[in-house]
Amino acid sequence: MSGARTAPNAETAGRMVEEILDRLASSGDRAACEAAEELVRVLMEFYGAAFARAMDLLGHCPERPAREAVDALLRDELVAGLLVLHGLHPDDAPTRIAHALDTLPQDVESIGFDPATGELRLRLTGSADCGRGDARDAVEQAARDTLACFAPEVTAVTLEADTASGPVLLQIGAGPPGASSSGPSGRPPATAAP
Question: Is a pLDDT exceeding 80 seen at residue 97?
């Protein structure tokens, strides 16, 4: 945001919005006028929800120290998103990415973030339902949704499986390699578990 322009007060801002909407209405483009009015309505709802949430978070424990109150606001997805949108969030992108990942129900870790492309590579550190595609898709979508609020710099998420903690495949055979395939009774010999 440019520092040359001062922030208008509520009365001035309201008057400016009305003037812009009136100019659009006088242009005769009804669709543009309706779209502009809808845009203003959606933005007002968004900002109103964020301010309501901030007041709610601050009102829960009015005696809490200021740092705890700020932390509560920064942990809130709606308020944090608004702060990021306006360049007011005090945390850098890696910190906000880490926080967003901590809020996911599935354990993931960041493998790397490329600010030039906006790609964030993640690795599943839990089983994610033994690698089922739909579970992986759900984790990836949850990551995208959360990152959109806390770290909009992330424009792409690539999810990789954690091969070290994946399920172990057991091979069931007739016996150890090189052993006879059948014992004296004609059945495969029993092997003792280690």
Answer: yes
